[in-house]
Specification:
The protein is an alpha/beta fold. It has two domains: 336 residues, Zn peptidases (Aminopeptidase, 3-Layer(aba) Sandwich); 111 residues, Alpha-Beta Plaits (2-Layer Sandwich), CATH 3.30.70.360. 40% of the residues lie in helices and 18% in strands. It has 15 helices and 14 strands. β1 and β2 form a beta hairpin. It is globular. The N terminus is likely disordered. One of its GO terms (cellular component) is cytoplasm. This is Amidohydrolase.
Length: 472
């Protein structure tokens, strides 16, 4: 009965059996343990941006075993790859991330428990992202084979989303030029296909070089690089009063000297700047660089600026998001086992004023059009091709991203269930895109209207080579 209902929802062609129509879901049912094991392996690896050697290799191995042709090391990034299956169009892309965040570790238990042997953790759940997306791609392949539907499914292994803009280099290299539609998802504390745009952003490391000297015995001979960093920070902080309201600026001093009695001859500060419009980011960035130059001149130091990453805001496609919202409602939310409920309750008790209620993982949140104050390199993909995304409750409701609670859930069955839900939604949406020409045409028409006829893509990170060492 369940298969019959699913077939009705997805629109069964007269020559396709019910079993064939649900082949993607059948594959996911049969291979849930594999998806969970992959997610757990990626969680254990916890490799940061552009260093995801084992994570990338594991996903490539699984996709190759499923019959996908693998192109490795694309866009001059050793851990980036494209896995393709099928022939002709439509060409659908499923994005998969797998980088961890540095400086946060946690065991997969509901109380604070550092893992001293690790220097990074999946606090953004990209282990689930990679595993769930790969499972969705293989499930779609099974559906294409069982139904004889023409088309190509691709999995894009996209490294270094966390500050490395891996997808931007892949877009810049033309790897999406022949793609008709792209799909992605992200771990969250809620199930939603809301159409959310994001902030454009750019980051850079500002490096100052001065002259070291004894801070007490010969201070007149020193030129402090740390003074330059502090002068820049002071000017940029004053600048905050005179920027558009939705601007976000944040920084961290990554090097500031080692001993108070030695004038630092080298210092570095790492900045992010964000705004909903890419051109506003560009104009505000000019002011930030002017502050850096002024700081260097005023302190007698030399300045070097290295752009690290830059992302466009996500270009929303409501045609696709409304389709994805309907798809998620057909599938439903997540049900916890008794053990998972105990885990979730203990996690929930660690929150101060959680914004979401425990139990909401069983629901699909209302559809909306909104602005997220985060940034993602999915934005550049969405500028290149009509793109749709979703979130699933891989975390306990109320969990903040980039937290120890997120790491704990991402390595547990709660996270694995969220990855499975994402794979079901992505593969079911793919079926609709392959079989509904009117849907494809409407989505492409909206994309063309929103992007505009005169759009000329210029990456916010410029023409720099991939910043492969940005996490070292």
């Amino acid at each position: 009965m369940r298969k019959l209902v699913l077939a009705t929802l997805l629109g069964t062609a007269s020559c396709v059996t019910v079993a064939q129509e649900s082949a993607h879901l059948d594959w996911l049912n049969a291979n849930y343990e594999q998806t969970a094991e992959t997610a757990r392996s990626l969680w254990e690896f916890a490799e940061v941006g552009y260093q995801e050697t084992r994570s990338s290799a594991l996903l490539q191995e699984q996709l190759a075993a499923a019959g996908f042709a693998i192109e490795s090391g694309v866009a001059d990034i050793p851990t980036a790859f494209v896995a393709s299956y099928g022939d002709g169009g439509p060409v659908l892309a499923i994005l998969g991330e797998f980088d961890a965040l540095p400086g946060i570790t946690q065991d997969s238990v509901p109380t604070r428990s550092l893992l001293e042997e690790k220097s990074a953790g999946h606090a953004c759940g990209h282990n689930l992202f990679g595993a769930g997306s790969a499972a969705a791609a293989i499930a779609v392949k099974e559906w294409l084979d069982s139904t004889g539907t023409p088309g190509t499914i691709r999995f894009y292994g996209t490294p270094a989303e966390e500050g490395g803009s891996g997808k931007v280099y892949m877009v810049r290299a033309g790897l999406f030029d022949d793609v008709d539609f792209a799909m992605h998802w992200h771990p969250s504390d809620k199930n939603s296909a809301a159409a959310a745009t994001t902030l454009a952003n750019r980051s850079a490391k500002f490096r100052f070089r001065g002259v070291s000297a004894h801070a007490a015995g010969a201070p007149e001979r020193g030129r402090s690089a740390l003074d330059a960093v502090e002068a820049m920070n002071y000017m940029v902080n004053m600048m905050r009063e005179h920027v558009p309201q939705q601007t976000r600026i944040h920084y961290v001093i990554t090097s500031g000297g080692n001993a108070p009695n030695v004038v630092p001859d080298y210092a570095e500060v790492f900045y992010y700047l964000r705004h909903p419009e890419a051109n506003t980011v560009r104009s505000l960035w000019e002011r930030m660089e002017a502050a850096a130059r002024g700081a260097a001149e005023g302190t007698g130091t030399e300045l070097e600026v290295e752009i690290i990453h830059g992302n466009y805001p996500v270009l929303v496609n409501e045609t696709l998001h409304k389709m994805m919202d309907a798809t998620m409602r057909e599938i439903g939310g997540i049900t916890y086992s008794a053990q998972e409920n105990r885990f979730a309750k203990e996690i929930y008790e660690s929150f101060d004023n959680p914004k979401r209620e425990l139990g909401s993982q069983e629901e699909i949140q209302p559809y909306s059009l909104s602005l997220s104050y985060g940034s993602t390199d999915v934005g550049d993909v969405s500028i290149a091709v009509p793109t749709v995304g979703l979130t699933t409750a891989t975390y306990v409701p109320g969990t903040a991203g980039h937290s120890w609670q997120a790491v704990a859930a991402a390595g547990s069955s709660i996270g694995f269930k969220g990855a499975d839900l994402a794979a079901r939604a992505l593969s079911s949406a793919a079926v609709k895109l392959y079989t509904d020409e009117a849907l494809r045409e409407a989505a492409k028409a909206e994309f063309a209207e929103r992007r505009g006829d005169d759009f000329d893509y210029e990456a916010l990170l410029g023409d720099r080579a991939p910043a492969l060492n940005y996490r070292r």
